[in-house]
Known about the structure:
By secondary structure, the chain is of the alpha+beta class. It has helices at 4-12, 17-25, 31-43, 53-67, 82-90, 94-101, 112-124, 130-141; strands at residues 143-150, 157-158, 165-169, 172-180, 185-186, 191-198, 212-217, 220-231.
Amino acid sequence: MVNFHQLRTWQADGLEIRDVVRRLLTSDMSSDDIVKAWGLAFDLSGDLPQGPEQFLDEVSEVLSSAVAEVPPGARSDAGLTRVDVEEYVDHAEWELALEVLGDFEGITWQTPRYWDLLAGAAVQMDLDPSWFYWRARESIHGLLRAELRLDEGATAVPAQGMRPVWDLSGGERKVAAMWVESKPVLEPGDRATVRLRPLMPGAWVHLVRGDRIALLQDGEPVGTAKIVEKVPPRP
């Protein structure tokens, strides 16, 4: 738990108030504990800055707005529901609430606004918003998931940031950004579910569940991916 000595150190280091609050939000402290520690740390020198209450309220409001868009029957990968997330928000467990909200599957009810809310909350909490930006694009352009097996002689693939070339069929080669689920790195010989975001979606419309495509590195096939899920773009 962050104590008032740490807060005083951050203040002495010249951190902006918003940056201090971001660090507090990612700690294991409750909102009440944050306010108490804040007052103790800064009131000692008589230079108490504006407290974090407003910032906390705004993060809570953003997360609550996202929770309001979750259908009652929706479940996260871990089986959690909207009610569970509401409890996390009520108890100021911001990071846990954000994680669960980002794990709800389905694409028909998730709007770009939903993912923008989560991305905004992540930015304010000094967390990586990349996953939420990715899902926002999927909510507009559709979903394409595949089971990829990387050959033993391939080069390891990071979970995100890759825009490899794929052989769709008959030598037709197209670019699609890739997000590897559940693994920070896909090692040679490993299998994983990947999400694809084609650069030219029109070239991929003929693919259906069960089709196979090849991952290329330096122009050579180094892995085979089987399409397991495809959801068309939002009307």
